[in-house]
Amino acid sequence: MQGLDGIVAAETVLSDVDGANGRLVIRGHPVEELARHATAESAAHLLLSGFFNGGPAEPDAFASAIGKAREEVFEHLSNILEVIASLPPVEALRAGLALLPDGHDFPVALRLLAAPAVLTPAIIRLRRGEAPLAPAPDMSQSADMLRMLSGVEASDASCRALDAYLATVSDHGLNASTFTARVVASTQAGLGSAAIAALSALKGPLHGGAPGPVLEMLKAIDAPHKAEPWLAGALARGERLMGFGHRIYKVRDPRADALKAAIEELSKAEARTSRLALAEAVEDAALRILKRKKPDRPLETNVEFYTAVLLDALGFPADSFTCVFATGRMPGWIAHAREQELTGRLVRPQSRYVGPATKQAA
Ligand code: ACO
After folding, report:
1. How many angstroms separate the first and last alpha carbons of the chain?
2. What pLDDT shows up at residue 345?
3. Which of 29, 126, 256, 320 could form a disulfide with 89 if both were Cys (CB 3.0 to 4.6 A apart)?
4. Which of 240, 255, 296 to mutate to test the pocket of ligand 1 (most atoms within 8 A of CB)?
């Protein structure tokens, strides 16, 4: 009851999360297929199709409309980037989104899709003392995001890995941030309001704030043989192991394997040293210890564990991981917000009063 466990609060055509069998289907496509073949733009196209008058157009035109929207967002926000970059990255992203005009139509959706891809690298660069780079509207969202981050054109393998990530996390049923987006959208407040509220929900460590702490954990453990004592110590102190456990999945989160495969592809193509070997050792040790300490709870690896390894390998700093997650989840938030708006029904559940009895006036 406290966490609305098991309550069905919406009907959706967008994604189907089968927690018992560890399957995720996004508009008819298994997540593993999207991770292998989709781009940020094609995943957004899949989710948004049918929800707006006037868009999305056929895929190529849609991709170039997102590119133009990146340019528009950069022009609109370039004067305030330095001010917002003094905030932690996810709060800076929220502040940037709040400065975009709100509304219900397709251009609003395009700017929301573009904004995190522009703001995230700009905020990261400013925080490390570098000037933000203007978008290149003809590039793909992933290629442009990586170029604006590092200042050089990213390899095809890196762009493919980021596309795999952004498509994998593009939608996931009625998670806390998407539910938030739907509640706000149901008041007809606008898509921007829904997205900002969703981002505020995403930022918590029990939801999309987990991958930064996962990377901190991997860094603290440092070597495979130190995993077991480190993890046992954390559990003995009553801490939760970040990147493990899920409200819906009672088996392994299918996105964990989709992302692990993307990291393996990236490592193969570029012979780069990611923290993959260490992560595998930590995962093994964590699953063993969790089984021992909580035998009645099916606690398995969730999406955030390999998110941390992948985004680290792509050069994103740990404190920006939630912003990259928001870049990937934005199409899902917008599609759910539209789906809710179009029902025309305000979300308004009830609470049961358990406070003091009414006092009678003396
Ligand atoms: N480490 C240790 N113990 C855990 C963990 C964990 N990661 N996750 C759950 N537990 C324990 C709880 O302490 C609790 O134990 P108790 O019954 O002895 O008190 C029990 O398992 C609760 O299990 P659930 O009811 O299945 O967990 P819940 O649905 O409340 O939580 C959540 C799900 C929030 C994701 C949780 O597993 C967690 O905090 N994980 C770590 C943070 C994390 O990885 N977040 C990202 C989730 S994925 C996403 O949002 C994109």
Report:
1. 37
2. 97
3. 320
4. 240
Q: Of the listed 304, 336, 339, 341, which one is catalytic?
A: 304
Is 41 a known active-site residue? no
pLDDT in tens, 287-298: 999 999 999 989
Residues 331 and 186 in one domain: yes
Whether residue 91 is found in the same domain as residue 194: yes
Closest CA to 255 of 215, 217, 208: 208
Query: Which tens digit of pLDDT belongs to each residue from 179-189?
Result: 999 999 999 99
Q: How far is the CA of 210 from the centre of ligand 1 (A)?
A: 11
Range(s) of the domain holding residue 163: 28-207+318-343
Sign of CA dihedral 173, 177, 182, 185: negative
Residue numbers in the chain where pLDDT is lower than 70: 271-273
Q: Does 111 fall in a domain?
A: yes
Selecting among 246, 283, 336, 339, the annotated active-site residue is 246
Question: Phi, psi at residue 17, to the nearest 5°?
Answer: -105, 115
Distance 245 CA to ligand 1 centre (A): 5
Question: Is position 15 within any domain?
Answer: no
Tell me: do 48 and 87 sit in the same domain.
yes
| Ligand 1 atom 9 nearest Cα | 245
